[in-house]
Amino acid sequence: MAQGIWIVAEQKEGELRKISFELVSEGKRLADKMGQSVTAILLGSNIKEKAPELGKYGADKVIVADDNRLATYTTDAYVSVIAELAQKEEPAIILLGASVQGKDLSGRLAARLGVGMAQDCVEFSLDNSNLVAKRPIYAGKAYATVTFKDSSPQIATARPNVFELNEPDESRSAEVIDAAFSLDDSQLKTKVVEVIQEAGDKPDLTEAELIVSGGRGMKGPENYNIIEELADLIGATVGASRSAVDAGWRPHSDQVGQTGKVVSPNLYIACGISGAIQHLAGMSTSKYIVAINKDPEAPIFQKADYGVVGDLFDVVPALTEEIKKIL
Amino acid sequence: MNILVCLKQVPDTETQIKVAPDSKSIVTDNIKWVMNPYDEYAVEEGLRLKEKFGGEVTIIGVGPTKVTESIRTALAMGADKGILVDDPALTGSDSLGTAKILAAVIKDLDYNLILCGKQGVDDDYGVVGSNLAELLGIPQISIVLKLEVSEDGSTVKAHREVEGGTLVIEASLPALITAQKGLNEPRYASLPGIMKAKKKPLDVKTIADLGLDASEVGESGAKIKIMQITPPEERLAGKIVEGETPQEKAANLVKLLHEEAKVI
Fold first, then answer.
1. How many domains does chain B have?
2. Mutate which of B132, B163, B170, B236 to test chain A, going by most A C-beta atoms within 10 A?
3. What is the least distance, in Å, from the CA of B77 to any CA of chain A?
4. For residue A49, what is the DSSP state?
5. How far is the CA of A61 from the CAs of A53, A109, A175, A317, in angstroms?
6. A253 touches chain B (CB under 8 A)
7. Domain that holds residue B257
8. Strands A15-16 and A306-309: what pairing?
9. What 8-state DSSP symbol labels residue A46?
10. Are B159 and B168 in contact (CB under 8 A)?
């Protein structure tokens, strides 16, 4: 009988990513309800020293797969190792992050194990130890609650920035186990040939706590400096509406909305964004929304906690100055 | 170079989504159905590779007869032929079920590259591509912003968007790629293209034609069951920040963000 909850931790260049702790925290909450344990699966190269951190957030066990071929994520290597471990240990549930890595991994892993997978979930509950997952569809214009059939393990990915972190308990320690796995070079059909880092150390939009976004009201790419100045001051990531991206003012990776990124920061400041339905779908789960727009009739004001009717070219620089006073 | 593009038809992104009375589906009356936006990038990339390397672009769709419209659009853009799997037994398929159907179509085809959109903008799973690559036993590279196929057509190098950067990944062909916005600028179908598309071959197959059993696909084969669909929590309009001047408004906003919301 399949037993226990697994979470697949994520690391980048040997550092655990925040989603790993969110997964352990949520995994622990579910496991407590089931009266079972949480095991974190950690893949990487020389990564074992990071395992105790997962224990502090609630992992009972950490299974470490250490191999230089696992240093950077590749679909083939990661799926191969995790599928082999899962077939041997038979967990009841496997949770991954709905990050770029987790979304790539989850589908292939589920197909290899022949089980169902619920992507990008924002809420989990249990029905007799079976996972019930709530996930946005149509970029958040609706939500689907799904269950699994003939699936052991039940696999789901958790949206970053949604699940509450447990308070780390420094006295708590996890049992750390070296994984036994066979990784055959002939299975590795893809190769990472280059890693291009973006300049700056701002978190990705999908993981950002604070976002300042600019839309058509910015009037041109040269004006984004006022947004960047505000963003730099508060440590926010810069986003953009689809019209700003389609006009070529900002890169595609900055787009928030239905054909861009779906975000859930603590604070979303929308500057010169009218609030097209596709944009609203992508940011409505933000905790606080501020809208700055000249047009008092703009739909964005219907979703904003705080609306400022005014010219963003006056309001945004004034906002930056006012924030400087309190920092 | 023979290229397969998997295509889905979805509600236009302008659509207001309303939950149907059964609470398990959405109201589909008056919905404008379009080719999934990410699939447009996949079709365009396929056409560009065909222009460079020769060969054929085949569009594969699954699902009701109206999907023919989106396949015809792809044919009008320049694809050579289409295949639609249309069978009442497909209703209620989950991602893995859809991938099984696509794999059954593809196993008899000669191909070098499969292109898919990175996700459907309807149910937002984004896994049919990786499910399919696994079933076919070929490498996958997902969320691709830039694609280069080697001159001899044996390998592919893809730029893949990840958090805070880009990974450049190499794989040998055949492989499956999922397209992200930014991969290219999809062309519009020209009027002569639309006329020609009407005469291009479009095969319609049933699951029996594919040798699949009805229990493996559709609702009976689905491993994910939708129990309920709900609207999002209503977000109410908050307050308009008072002030005579931009400076006053900014000062009042900062006060609210700092003292009330406590987010800065």
1. 2
2. B163
3. 21
4. G
5. 11, 21, 5, 50
6. yes
7. 233-264
8. unpaired
9. S
10. yes
Q: CATH for A205-326, among 3.30.2130.30, 3.90.550.10, 3.40.710.10, 3.40.50.1220?
A: 3.40.50.1220
Contact B89, B210 (CB under 8 A): no
pLDDT value of residue A200: 73
Let me know whether B161 and B56 are in one domain.
Answer: yes
Whether residue B77 is found in the same domain as residue B189: yes
- Beta carbons of A108 and B140 less than 8 Å apart: yes
Q: Within an 8 Å CB–CB cutoff, is residue A126 touching chain B?
A: no
Q: Is the per-residue pLDDT at A34 higher than 80? A: yes
Complete edge-to-edge strand list for the sheet that includes strand A117-121: A117-121, A154-158, A93-97, A5-8, A38-44, A61-66, A175-178
Q: Does residue B215 lie in a domain region?
A: yes
Predicted confidence (pLDDT) per residue in B70-129, tens digit: 999 999 999 999 999 999 999 999 999 999 999 999 999 999 999 999 999 999 999 999
Both tokens of B157, joined, read 């190098």
Q: Among B139, B162, B240, whose Cβ lies nearest the Cβ of A309?
A: B240
CB pairs under 8 A between A and B: 273
What six digits make up the tokens of B238?
Answer: 């908050």
Q: Which residues in chain B touch residue A296, judged by CB atoms under 8 angstroms apart?
A: 240
Mark whether B22 and B100 lie in a shared domain: yes
| Tally of residues, chain B | 264
* pLDDT band for position A201 (cuts 50, 70, 90): confident
Top CATH class of A5-187 equals alpha beta
What is chain A's mean pLDDT, rounded?
A: 96
pLDDT (tens digit, 9 = 90+) per residue, B211-256? 999 898 999 999 999 999 999 998 888 999 999 999 999 999 999 9
Taking CA atoms, B85 is separated from A280, B81, B226, B264, in Å, by 35, 14, 23, 53
